[in-house]
Write a structure and sequence with these properties.
Length: about 325
């Protein structure tokens, strides 16, 4: 499955990163305020404005979404996105100016690169300013710059994760896309072949099955909160806020098809679902295809990742 999330009308993406510190952020910028839902499945999340997205709460649209490295420190990047949007006059009109609505989620990448440098307000502003329809960056960019996978045999035996994207377009004009930063504690596998693409390695460099590795440990060797896969699925469908939340829930199946284990005590897996409101389609169809597209984006993230911070990548080991 080819394509990118920017194939969805009204969706732009900007990435900013520090390649030496190995951290970065990705901004999904919406040309028009759009309905958004969220579903958090991991037990160690770092999020911003997710309560606002509850269907019971007042504000029904968002102006951007920020995915970032840096653990909880990286939530500051969304402030820069707000600043950029405010300068453009974009946001919720509160009579005394505008308040841009920018939900966000972070992943833990402090174990790689320089942990003292994290995505901040300036980096978030830079990513927002770079947002465009021409998304040709994947792998070690944006929120995927310091991402890693397969940490159940110790971080030194892990592999490089990254940023991935994919999309699908139907004959009726429905477009569904996904953007994901893959930073899982588990391994990533191809659901078609069952082959493990990236995961924990043994002393000889062989890639192992994460669940089998867990069976050899009486306790987790990974501290809580050191992982997390975060994503946005977007479509040009007409959805309500509650329907968007259901799509986000269904999209998590895409992670379950490609990452094992997923939604653990050490992950903060979070998916946002955005709908720009142009095409009528059922929630079941949008949710099912969102899972498919997200699974493809996860594979793209691993295939485009490059070795960094002492961690090998799928491409380096498959050569």
């Amino acid at each position: 499955m080819a394509g990118t999330i920017t194939d969805v009308p009204g969706v732009k993406v900007g990435n900013a990163q520090n390649n030496e510190a190995l951290t970065g952020c990705s901004v999904i910028l919406l040309e028009q305020p759009s309905v958004c839902g969220v579903d958090v499945r991991g037990s160690a999340p770092g999020t911003r404005e997710t309560d606002l997205l509850d269907p019971m709460n007042m504000v029904s649209v968002v102006h951007a979404i920020c995915l970032s490295g840096g653990s909880a420190y990286g939530l500051d990047a969304a402030t820069g996105v707000m600043q950029y949007l405010e300068e453009k006059g974009i946001g919720l009109d509160v009579m005394f100016g505008v308040v841009p609505i920018v939900p966000g989620a972070v992943l833990f990448d402090l174990a790689i690169g320089d942990h003292k440098i994290r995505p901040d307000r300036q980096m978030g502003y830079e990513a927002a300013a770079k947002a465009s329809k021409d998304l040709d960056e994947q792998g070690n960019v944006g929120a995927g710059t310091g991402a890693s996978v397969g940490k159940l045999n110790g971080f030194s035996n892990a592999m490089k994760g990254g940023l991935g994207t994919a999309s699908i377009t139907l004959a009726n004009g429905l477009v569904i896309g996904a953007l994901v930063a893959v930073n899982a504690i588990g391994h990533v596998f191809d659901p078609q072949s069952g082959k493990i693409l990236a995961g924990p390695r043994d002393e000889e460099g062989n890639i192992l099955d994460s669940v089998e590795v867990m069976q050899t440990h009486t306790f987790s060797p990974i501290p809580p909160g050191t992982n997390t896969t975060i994503a946005v699925v977007a479509s040009n469908a007409m959805l309500t806020k509650s329907e968007a939340k259901k799509v986000a829930q269904m999209a998590h199946d895409g992670l379950a098809r490609t990452i094992r284990p997923i939604h653990t005590m050490n992950d903060g897996d979070t998916i946002f679902a955005v709908a720009t409101g142009e095409v009528k389609a059922t929630v079941d169809l949008i949710g099912s295809l969102s899972a498919d597209v997200l699974a493809a984006a996860v594979i793209c993230a691993i295939e485009h990742a490059e070795s960094a911070g002492g961690l090998p990548s799928y491409s380096s080991l498959s050569q």
